[in-house]
Backbone:
């Protein structure tokens, strides 16, 4: 089954404790993105990757890191999480930026 | 800069037609998407327009005018299951910029 998976689905953590949210797709897509979704602000792109070893900042990259060592995986790293990073995070993938994006189920992160 | 505007909320009656508008300003336009998002779920793809005109897909149609920076999503024969948020998203060069979404409530 074609899908985008994210783990964990739910995470409660404390300020400053490094964490990684994994994202994996099995569709051989080249374009992958991370978004955060907050009430009243909609979906905002954090980082995107157009292919292996190619990553670029989206609109809200501060406080986040990503890597794209393999085509299928695109982990999101929060080196020192802060409460303002409490949000719902979605990973998505597509063949390229102008094709339908497939979204993962979301990761609800709470930073206390 | 980038700016995408769409109404925050709309209501409609089952069986009716509703039009959700989206206006945008971007510097490197490469197309416009519409996504549907039910509460508590991930967005799912509805349509993509890059050329001016109307694209029809079943009960849903999407229109684009690049010169006006304007798009709309038209939903016909509304059903209760169409109650959801509808997200307009613009491809600005290589990035995707989403509007804040329009929450549509369909009443019987």
Residues:
């Amino acid at each position: 089954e074609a899908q985008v998976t994210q783990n964990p689905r739910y995470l409660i953590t404390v300020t400053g404790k490094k964490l990684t949210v994994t994202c994996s797709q099995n569709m051989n897509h080249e374009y992958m993105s991370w978004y955060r979704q907050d009430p009243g602000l909609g979906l905002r792109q954090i980082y995107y990757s157009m292919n292996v070893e190619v990553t670029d900042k989206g609109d809200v990259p501060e406080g986040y890191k990503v890597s794209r060592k393999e085509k299928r995986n695109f982990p999101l790293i929060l080196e020192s999480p802060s409460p303002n990073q409490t949000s719902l995070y979605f990973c998505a993938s597509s063949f390229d930026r102008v094709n339908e994006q497939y979204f993962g189920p979301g990761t609800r992160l709470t930073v206390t | 800069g980038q700016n995408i505007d769409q109404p925050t909320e709309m209501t409609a009656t089952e069986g009716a037609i509703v039009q959700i508008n989206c206006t945008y300003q971007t510097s490197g336009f490469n197309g416009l998407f519409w996504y549907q998002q039910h509460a508590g779920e991930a967005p799912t793809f509805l349509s993509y327009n890059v050329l001016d005109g109307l694209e029809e897909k079943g009960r849903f149609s999407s229109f684009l005018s690049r010169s006006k920076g304007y798009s709309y999503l038209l939903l016909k024969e509304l059903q209760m299951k169409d109650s959801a948020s509808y997200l307009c998203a613009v491809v600005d060069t290589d990035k995707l910029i989403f509007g804040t979404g329009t929450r549509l409530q369909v009443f019987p």
Q: What stands out?
A: The CA atoms of residues 54 and 99 of chain B lie 20 Å apart. Chain B touches chain A through 23 residues (CB under 8 Å). Chain B has a mean pLDDT of 96. Chain B has no helices and eleven strands.
